[in-house]
């Protein structure tokens, strides 16, 4: 029986947020989830995060964290998993261990009202959270930071038709059973709704925000990483993975060999790092530099000195993901060079707001021309910098994004009361 809830005080909820990696681990979502949990806790909700000991980057040297900890008004529970770098069987074991640990934890706890999980590990995380929600009688929020198995099909990980079809059916079922499917863009919403049987999924669009800086250490930029005077620096910061298509930027720099005032910097590590280094060495390029992974504070300081920041994805990926580095760049007021489909929401925002230049993925000449244009037209670059500082930050601010997360929880509270 529905009630008029206009003047009814909504009771606080017990919320469980699950993700394989949590602060101080290094993935962007690890820090963003802390901010989301903090906001919910500040509004009176009883929030718990279930995660693992820091393990995303073996060379990050992050100290072991307490297994049970209170942080920012919410509780954190961490379990141990084995080191899996370069060990596929251990990786599979960790997926199984993490999944079973989630179910066991939920079964031992008082009832949760809401269980939220992101897409790590792909597909399986959503399935496990759906089972956990049934055990606890909770409503499921499925936070799709990316959409699998579609991305896995593009990468080749789930290219077998039978495997792909099986995994997609599982994920469609998860989306249909979720109280909310949260995606990052209109492109991702369209991709979910285009799936057979997923048209009626309840979808909210809540994009990311720049990675918060929680540690108190100041930025320490080594002199070797500092930008030289009169140098036009183009930078890609973050994971050098299989989906970025960064080879095109190496090739573009071969067209700019004669421009000693332009350099391209890759900052971070990842599976594609060795291949990119080899490609640059083979082309005998002196205008490309590779910086190792840096702390968030130091990385932001290096980004703030750059003139143009790269966001790049292989074709079709933008339908299923949205690069969170976009927000980190805009927070520092940096113009963007985005290499994604021009009809995508990201490219449309960049062009409409004049935040930078958009080029088609793989367009080596277009990338080189865009870099050269802004290096030579400082007035156009200066206007993009102003726009990035003002409009870009306004579009993707942490506060406005957290307001949306608060609104989502309020909606779930309201719906629960209306269906009593």
Describe this structure as you would to a colleague.
This protein folds into two domains: 14-209 and 398-418, 3-Layer(aba) Sandwich (Rossmann fold), CATH 3.40.50; 223-395, 3-Layer(aba) Sandwich (Rossmann fold). The protein has 14 helices and 14 strands. The chain is of the alpha/beta class and 420 residues long. The strands form two sheets. Strands 3-4-2-1-5-6-7-8 form an eight-stranded mixed beta sheet, with helices on both faces. A six-stranded parallel beta sheet has the order 11-10-9-12-13-14, sandwiched between helices.
Top keywords for this entry?
420 residues; alpha/beta; Rossmann fold; six-stranded parallel sheet; disordered N terminus
Tell me briefly what this model is.
With 420 residues, this protein is of the alpha/beta class.
């Amino acid at each position: 029986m529905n009630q008029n809830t206009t003047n009814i005080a909504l009771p606080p909820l017990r919320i469980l947020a699950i993700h394989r990696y949590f602060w101080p681990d290094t993935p962007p979502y690890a820090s963003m989830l802390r901010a989301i949990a903090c906001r919910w806790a500040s509004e009176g909700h009883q929030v718990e995060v279930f995660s693992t000991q820091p393990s995303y980057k073996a060379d990050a040297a992050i100290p072991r964290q307490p297994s049970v900890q209170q942080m920012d008004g919410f509780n954190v529970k961490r379990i141990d998993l084995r080191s899996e770098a370069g060990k596929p069987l251990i990786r599979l074991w960790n997926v199984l261990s993490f999944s079973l640990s989630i179910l066991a934890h939920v079964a031992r706890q008082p009832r949760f009202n809401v269980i939220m999980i992101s897409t790590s590990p792909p597909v399986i995380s959503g399935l496990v959270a759906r089972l956990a929600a049934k055990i606890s009688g909770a409503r499921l929020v499925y936070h799709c930071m990316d959409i699998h198995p579609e991305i896995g099909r593009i990468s080749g990980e789930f290219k077998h038709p039978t495997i792909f079809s099986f995994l997609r059916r599982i994920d469609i079922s998860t989306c249909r059973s979720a109280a909310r499917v949260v995606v990052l863009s209109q492109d991702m919403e369209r991709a979910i709704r285009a799936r057979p049987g997923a048209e009626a999924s309840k979808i909210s669009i809540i994009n990311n925000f720049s990675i918060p800086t929680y540690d108190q250490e100041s930025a320490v930029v080594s002199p070797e990483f500092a930008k030289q005077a009169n140098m036009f620096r183009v930078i890609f910061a973050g994971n050098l993975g299989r989906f970025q298509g960064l080879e095109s930027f190496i090739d573009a720099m071969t067209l700019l060999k004669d421009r000693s005032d332009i350099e391209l910097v890759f900052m971070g590590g990842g599976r594609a790092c060795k291949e990119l280094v080899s490609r640059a060495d083979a082309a005998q390029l002196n205008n490309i530099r590779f910086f190792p992974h840096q702390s968030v504070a130091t990385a932001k300081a290096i980004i703030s000195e750059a003139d143009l920041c790269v966001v790049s994805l292989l074709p079709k990926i933008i339908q299923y993901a949205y690069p969170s580095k976009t927000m980190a760049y805009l927070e520092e007021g940096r113009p963007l060079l985005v290499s994604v489909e021009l009809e995508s929401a990201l490219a449309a925002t960049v062009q409409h707001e004049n935040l930078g230049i958009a080029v088609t993925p793989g367009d080596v000449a277009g990338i080189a021309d865009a870099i050269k244009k802004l290096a030579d037209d400082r007035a156009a670059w200066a206007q993009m910098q102003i726009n990035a500082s003002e409009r870009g930050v306004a579009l993707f601010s942490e506060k406005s994004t957290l307001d949306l997360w608060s609104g989502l929880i309020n909606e779930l509270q309201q719906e629960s009361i209306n269906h009593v």
